[in-house]
Amino acid sequence: MKKITLLGSTGSIGQQTLDVISEHPEEFQLVSLSFGGNLELGSKAIKKYKPKFVAVKDKETFSAIQELCKEVEGVTYSYGEEGLIEAAVYHDADLVVNAVIGSVGLVPTLKAIQAGKTIALANKETLVTAGHLVMEEAEKHGVDILPVDSEHSAIFQCLQGENKKEISKLIVTASGGSFRDRSRDELNDVTVKEALHHPNWSMGAKITIDSATMMNKGLEVIEAHWLFGLPYERIEVLLHRQSIIHSMVEYHDRSVMAQLGTPDMRVPIQYAMSYPGRLPLPSASSLQLWEIGELHFEKADFNRYRCLQFAYDSGKIGGTMPTVLNAANEEAVAAFLNGKITFLQIEDWVEKALEQHKAVSRPDLETIHKVDLETRRFVGSLLS
Ligand SMILES: NC(=O)C1=CN([C@@H]2O[C@H](COP(=O)(O)OP(=O)(O)OC[C@H]3O[C@@H](n4cnc5c(N)ncnc54)[C@H](OP(=O)(O)O)[C@@H]3O)[C@@H](O)[C@H]2O)C=CC1
Ligand SMILES: CC(=O)[C@@H](O)[C@H](O)COP(=O)(O)O
Ligand SMILES: [Mn+2]
């Protein structure tokens, strides 16, 4: 029986992680969870899974959730950043599924690693903003960082039993997002509703917008760099509109390994949770390639998807540059979702934030926090 902590339990990945736990009650027990402010889904999970520890975003939610779940005995509640960290290091858990959104996931991940927990990582912003700190800490504490992101899970699966030294390149597939069939000129007045309509995946709002700008793929290139230790020159992005091939690895004999499946995040979530073994998932659809008929591929266009170029450039510069990329993008996406800026202004804001920053190499946690905050302030000032 693996004892699980789930950070971000009310989100898209969080809810699918709960589905996986429900499919395998004899394999997984939820002992600690966190959520932000979604009292409906939060209380439902507490009543069903009866965790021992619950952390929420703020004091108001902290009071409300205790009232809503007063019949569930033996639960300790907490809130705020400290609460999220307490949930992450909860003593009885073996594995932490980090499914929070944004760089708020960084410190809980570092603390969970220091507490010796295995990490199933969906929260890619953690690796983008401070990948070197996370990987160093994982190495130091002998902790596995298991990818949940579908592309990285695919690569990880293609690497099983292979020698990493024999990899020639990683091929990360990209759907192209909500606006893949529109030209740049047609993006001037797209709406939030249109942007939130991903062709293949049902996901949280922020990642769906990232997918439409292709920043998601940029963040994933940086994520792959840290998880698999390859230089950016050997990480390629390939447009593949069906999201059936989740990513590939080319070895130096030119053999290419791919992982395929219907787009269903429960598969990579469960693989990270069951690793090194596999568990059945009968409710997932079986891939019928004859129904799909053809798989489609295109070269990634860096002029069309400027955020992809920004991500490669930031990753190659390294240091605090990806921290700026991530913080500026988080702020810009939130502003777009709140109707304050247009879709194309997202990339303008990110570009301006990157231009004004002088990268600091090998930043410590304090520097990461400082740069993250300064970037958010800078980007905020672009509105006024
Ligand atoms: N969705 C997907 O299919 C995929 C997602 N990912 C990655 O997984 C991560 C989660 O994505 P997704 O599930 O879509 O996101 P969602 O927005 O659906 O969920 C985010 C979760 O984090 C919680 N949360 C938000 N802000 C805070 C905060 N400040 N403090 C504590 N908790 C907070 C939310 O709580 P509440 O809602 O209660 O406020 C919610 O539980 C992201 O990094 C994303 O890039 C990767 C691959 C696929
Ligand atoms: C499901 C998943 O892992 C997402 O990151 C997904 O890949 C988004 O799709 P695109 O960014 O390829 O549109
Ligand atoms: Mn992905």
TrEMBL record:
Classification via SUPFAM superfamilies: 1-deoxy-D-xylulose-5-phosphate reductoisomerase, C-terminal domain, Glyceraldehyde-3-phosphate dehydrogenase-like, C-terminal domain, NAD(P)-binding Rossmann-fold domains
Reaction catalysis annotation: 2-C-methyl-D-erythritol 4-phosphate + NADP(+) = 1-deoxy-D-xylulose 5-phosphate + NADPH + H(+)
Domain 1-deoxy-D-xylulose 5-phosphate reductoisomerase N-terminal: 4-131
GO terms of biological process kind: isopentenyl diphosphate biosynthetic process, methylerythritol 4-phosphate pathway involved in terpenoid biosynthetic process
Superkingdom as given in the UniProt entry: Bacteria
Binding site for NADPH: 10-13, 36, 38, 123, 125, 204
Residue ranges annotated for the 1-deoxy-D-xylulose 5-phosphate reductoisomerase C-terminal domain, each copy included: 145-228
Name of this protein: 1-deoxy-D-xylulose 5-phosphate reductoisomerase
Cross-referenced InterPro entries: DXP_reductoisomerase, DXP_reductoisomerase_C, DXP_reductoisomerase_N, DXPR_C, DXPR_C_sf, NAD(P)-bd_dom_sf
Molecular-function GO term, any one: NADPH binding
Similarity-based family: Belongs to the DXR family.
Cofactor names: Mg(2+); Mn(2+)
Keyword Transferase: no
Residue ranges annotated for the DXP reductoisomerase C-terminal domain, each copy included: 260-377
Keywords for this protein: Isomerase, Isoprene biosynthesis, Magnesium, Manganese, Metal-binding, NADP, Oxidoreductase
